[in-house]
């Protein structure tokens, strides 16, 4: 879904959103009084239900319509690892949270303003996150004695007063859906499945969301089953009409479009942005893109997406295992392609030997690691920044590898272009560290013009490059560029450029097998120097007044929660500086100077302090970790409290 945004034609939302939505179901608004509309600047909605209730689809559709309306947004899908967890149980709850606003936002939100709970398990699993006064919409048809007992409710929470602190809406979603579809001819079981579309229609009415896109989507999704498509559309419209007519919902809400920089926007997830970035890198480098991969959560979507783009010369190879996947990708790199492999932490462990081989061969290779909780299988569908030290050191011998980490879902596009620049320029494998939060979350992305993208053109070796003592010329595969220390890249089959490859140590220049101690020492130091010498931008520091004493430093997906927390601290009058690392190996050249410029450095991470460990070792600064490994992103309020405490500690020390 794309939309045009031009600040010179800002929308003030004075039409109540109806003009932009322009798509109330035909049965709505015919001779009925219009309910009052309340203006909000933002709202956080969470859809929650059983794994089979279609919560991810419901959330995705609401997100797409919100993006087309022009709101800024951020999402947090959250679902079990099991393909089908036991129905009606707490482990089987799937949820989708969406934060949308009329201004710039950074996170999916700390606590939902609205919870749609499709069953007792969904209510019980998500109730602790709700602030008092939040709205709860429950499917009363599912609150049977058996369902309540399955999740440990001794009494019905809809009737015992335990929800009096919330605005409770009891809606028989299943019954209303079946009534709406009684003429559809569908079996009861099939008709019940459309209750998520009824809920979507109700929420679309409540928040003035467009509807045409969802109806078009449903017709396309079920093009081979038009009866199913029309049933879902009927349920969707029935939900809209229920909101319009029921007395239980007296008010609808309006969130005006956000004022974004001019351009063409679309909603995009991190994995989709990575996929498009890889295609762009292939196009800008002039190299065919080859993905050698083995399916693993949460990276599999990249394989799925790239397999759709053969028209761009993309070749995808679903290998029999992780080792074969990276082996094929490295072979493609040897053959002159942009070689890529995608995986998560367990797969990185299996790929480590071949990554070491790529270091030795000095060939460009992109290793895309969508991090998840570990160790072992760990938390397959939950997020974590667990693999930084694995990316840095998870190989035998001295095998340095550059590491790049995007900060937001949309930034995944630019980050993979940067990783490709480094790999192609310096002839090295490069890690790109995304994570499950970025991979599955989404936000608006301004589509760049082609001429805004970097030129990644590659010069292959085409002729001998070294003169021998007898005056003849030969090809030396390890004769280096004096600036980048990169070796030449010779495509196999180029006449006169035959050369040896393999994992055994190479002689400097010739590439012949060498066991000479001095040569090995030289080659190890040279490979390290090549990575250390990679040109990366200096670290930008956000310190508006220039007098902050506390610096909060992050990397990867902690950017949104950290930035939101910093905004809260500054709104409260606190002075605090913020910086965020995209390049983790090598670090920006000015990082040490930045760290030494502050009295206290706080490093929030979704691990047990991996970046903090690197900073303390390299720069001998007292970087203080703030960590969580819960499979969920930080909450902004939680981080703001930590930062306030850090500032308060320094102030207290000054007063002693």
UniProtKB/TrEMBL annotation:
Record SUPFAM superfamilies: Pyruvate-ferredoxin oxidoreductase, PFOR, domain III (SSF53323), Thiamin diphosphate-binding fold (THDP-binding) (SSF52518), TK C-terminal domain-like (SSF52922)
Region Disordered: start-end pairs: 1-40
Ranges that cross the membrane: none
Ranges in coiled-coil conformation: none
Keywords for the protein's UniProt record, in alphabetical order: Oxidoreductase
Domain Pyruvate:ferredoxin oxidoreductase core: 548-613
Xref: InterPro entries: 2-oxoacid/accept_OxRdtase_asu, PFOR_II, Pyruvate:ferred/Flavod_OxRd, Pyrv/ketoisovalerate_OxRed_cat, Pyrv_Fd/Flavodoxin_OxRdtase_N, Pyrv_flavodox_OxRed_cen, THDP-binding, Transketo_C/PFOR_II
Pyruvate flavodoxin/ferredoxin oxidoreductase pyrimidine binding domain segment(s): 290-507
Domain Pyruvate/ketoisovalerate oxidoreductase catalytic per the UniProt entry, residue ranges: 52-239
NCBIfam families attached to this UniProt entry: OAFO_sf (TIGR03710)
Protein name: 2-oxoacid:acceptor oxidoreductase subunit alpha
Organism: Kitasatospora arboriphila
Lineage: Bacteria, Bacillati, Actinomycetota, Actinomycetes, Kitasatosporales
């Amino acid at each position: 879904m794309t939309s045009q945004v031009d600040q010179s034609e800002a929308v003030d939302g004075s039409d109540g959103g109806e003009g932009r939505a322009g798509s109330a179901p035909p049965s709505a608004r015919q001779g009925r009084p219009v309910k009052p509309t309340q203006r909000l600047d933002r709202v956080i909605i969470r859809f929650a239900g059983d794994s089979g209730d279609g919560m991810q689809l419901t959330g995705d559709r609401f997100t797409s319509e919100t993006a087309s309306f022009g709101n800024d947004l951020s999402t947090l899908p959250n679902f079990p690892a099991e393909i089908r967890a036991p129905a009606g149980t707490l482990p089987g709850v799937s949820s989708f949270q969406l934060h949308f606003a009329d201004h710039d936002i950074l996170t999916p939100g700390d606590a939902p303003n609205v919870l749609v709970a499709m069953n007792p398990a969904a209510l019980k699993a998500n109730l602790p996150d709700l602030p008092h006064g939040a709205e709860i919409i429950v499917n009363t048809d599912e609150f049977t004695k058996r369902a309540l007992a399955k999740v440990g409710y001794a009494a019905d929470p809809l009737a015992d007063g335990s929800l009096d602190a919330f605005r409770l809406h009891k809606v028989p979603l299943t019954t209303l859906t079946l009534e709406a579809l009684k003429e559809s001819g569908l079996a009861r079981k099939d008709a019940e499945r459309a209750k998520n579309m009824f809920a979507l229609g109700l929420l679309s009415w409540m928040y003035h969301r467009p509807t045409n896109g969802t109806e078009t989507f449903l017709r396309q999704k079920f093009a081979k089953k038009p009866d199913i498509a029309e049933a879902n559309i009927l349920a969707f419209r029935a939900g809209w009409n229920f909101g319009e007519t029921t007395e239980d919902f007296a008010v609808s809400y309006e969130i005006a479009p956000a004022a974004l920089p001019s351009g063409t926007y679309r909603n995009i997830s991190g994995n989709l942005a990575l996929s498009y970035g890889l295609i762009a890198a292939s196009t800008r480098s002039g190299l065919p893109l080859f993905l050698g991969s083995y399916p693993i959560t949460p990276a599999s979507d990249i394989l799925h997406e790239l397999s759709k783009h053969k028209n761009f010369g993309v070749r995808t190879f679903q290998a029999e295992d992780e080792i074969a996947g990276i082996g094929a990708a490295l072979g493609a790199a040897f053959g002159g392609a942009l070689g890529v492999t995608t995986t998560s932490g367990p797969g990185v462990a299996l790929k480590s030997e071949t990554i070491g081989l790529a270091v030795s061969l000095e060939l460009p290779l992109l290793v895309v690691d969508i991090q998840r909780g570990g160790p072992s299988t760990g938390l397959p569908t939950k997020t974590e920044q667990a693999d930084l030290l694995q990316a840095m050191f998870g190989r035998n011998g001295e095998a340095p590898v550059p590491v790049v980490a995007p900060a937001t879902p949309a930034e995944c596009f630019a980050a993979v272009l940067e990783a490709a620049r480094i790999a192609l320029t310096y002839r090295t494998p490069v890690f790109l560290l995304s994570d499950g939060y970025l991979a599955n979350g989404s936000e608006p992305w301004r589509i760049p013009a082609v001429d805004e993208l970097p030129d990644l053109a590659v010069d292959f070796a085409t002729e001998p490059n070294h003169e021998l003592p007898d005056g003849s010329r030969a090809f030396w595969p390890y004769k280096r560029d004096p600036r980048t220390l990169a070796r030449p890249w010779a495509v196999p089959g180029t006449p006169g450029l035959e050369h040896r490859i393999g994992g055994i140590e190479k002689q400097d220049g010739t590439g012949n097998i060498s066991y000479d101690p001095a040569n090995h020492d030289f080659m190890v130091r040279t490979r390290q120097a090549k990575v250390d010498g990679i040109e990366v931008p200096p670290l930008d520091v956000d310190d508006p007044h220039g007098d902050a004493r506390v610096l909060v430093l992050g990397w990867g997906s902690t950017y949104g929660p950290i930035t939101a927390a910093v905004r809260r601290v500054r709104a409260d009058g606190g002075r605090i500086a913020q910086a965020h690392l995209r390049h983790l190996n090598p670090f920006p050249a000015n990082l040490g100077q930045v760290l030494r410029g502050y009295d206290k450095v706080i490093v929030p991470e979704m691990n047990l302090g991996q970046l903090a460990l690197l900073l303390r070792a390299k720069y001998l600064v007292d970087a203080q970790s703030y960590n969580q490994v819960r499979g969920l992103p930080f909450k902004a309020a939680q981080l703001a409290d930590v930062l306030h405490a850090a500032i308060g500690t320094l102030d207290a020390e000054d007063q002693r």
